């Protein structure tokens, strides 16, 4: 599966490579198999294997065999790790950070990134994004949405602008903003949101 140089930061060989590096650099203490990486990134197993092998050979990743599996993680001792991790965070990291920070919000059905960052991520040429536009679909507490946006903003070092729409308005597409988002580049990060343990109800 061929992947062209990404518009967000064309110094990387491909968006697949950048996404793989981003996932590993944002979770440097976590091990992944190639199968895990392919599933998380939504790419073919052969592509994930090829990119991971190149990165391990370069020293940016470390690997160890456990049974028949090979576990990979970012090589935090590599002298390029810290500057590379920061670059990846502000370019390819927004969808990972937004998914993590908005995951615990009650009443959220979908979280969608739109605007200039989504356009660059989709490969549309243009200037580097200056902020991240996020649509929260559902009926979450407004204060908690803005608190999540502030946490994401602190991690990314760039403004995160949340907007809330009811699920009925997202489904109908009659809302002008919703119609614009659905008609242009956007990225639904709902599937990336880590599971959150819900408190048990008292009996």
Fill in the keyword field for this structure.
single chain; 203 residues; alpha+beta; Arc Repressor Mutant, subunit A; 4-stranded mixed sheet; two-stranded antiparallel sheet; 9 helices; 17% strand; elongated
What's the topology here?
Elements: H1 15-26, H2 34-41, H3 45-58, E1 61-66, E2 69-74, H4 81-91, H5 94-102, E3 108-114, H6 116-121, E4 132-138, H7 142-156, E5 160-165, H8 167-172, H9 176-183, E6 187-188
Parallel strand pairs: 4-5
Antiparallel strand pairs: 1-2, 3-4, 3-6
Q: What does the model show?
A:
This protein is an alpha+beta fold. It folds into 2 domains: 15-91, Arc Repressor Mutant, subunit A; 94-192, Beta Polymerase, domain 2 (2-Layer Sandwich), CATH 3.30.460.10. It has helices at residues 15-26, 34-41, 45-58, 81-91, 94-102, 116-121, 142-156, 167-172, 176-183, and strands at 61-66, 69-74, 108-114, 132-138, 160-165, 187-188.
Short description:
The protein has nine helices and six strands. With 203 residues, the protein is α+β, with helices and mostly antiparallel strands. Helix 1 (15-26) packs across helix 4 and helix 2 packs across helix 3 (45-58).
């Amino acid at each position: 599966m061929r992947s062209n140089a990404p518009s967000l930061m064309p110094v990387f060989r491909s968006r697949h490579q950048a996404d793989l590096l981003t996932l590993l650099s944002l979770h440097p203490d976590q091990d992944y198999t190639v199968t895990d990486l392919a599933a998380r990134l939504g790419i073919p197993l052969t592509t994930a294997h090829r990119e991971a092998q190149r990165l391990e050979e370069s020293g940016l990743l470390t690997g160890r065999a456990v049974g028949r599996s090979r576990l990979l993680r970012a090589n935090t001792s590599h002298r390029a790790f810290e500057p590379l991790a920061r670059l990846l965070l502000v370019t390819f990291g927004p969808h990972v950070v937004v998914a993590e920070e908005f995951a615990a919000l009650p009443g959220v059905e979908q979280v969608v990134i739109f605007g200039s960052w989504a356009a660059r991520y989709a490969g549309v040429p243009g200037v580097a994004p200056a902020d991240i536009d996020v649509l929260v679909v559902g009926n979450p507490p407004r204060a908690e949405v803005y608190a999540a946006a502030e946490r994401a903003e602190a991690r990314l070092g760039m403004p995160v602008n949340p907007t809330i729409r009811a699920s009925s308005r997202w489904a109908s597409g009659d809302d002008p903003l919703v119609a614009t988002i659905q008609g242009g580049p956007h990225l639904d990060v709902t599937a990336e949101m880590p599971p959150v343990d819900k408190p048990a109800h008292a009996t």
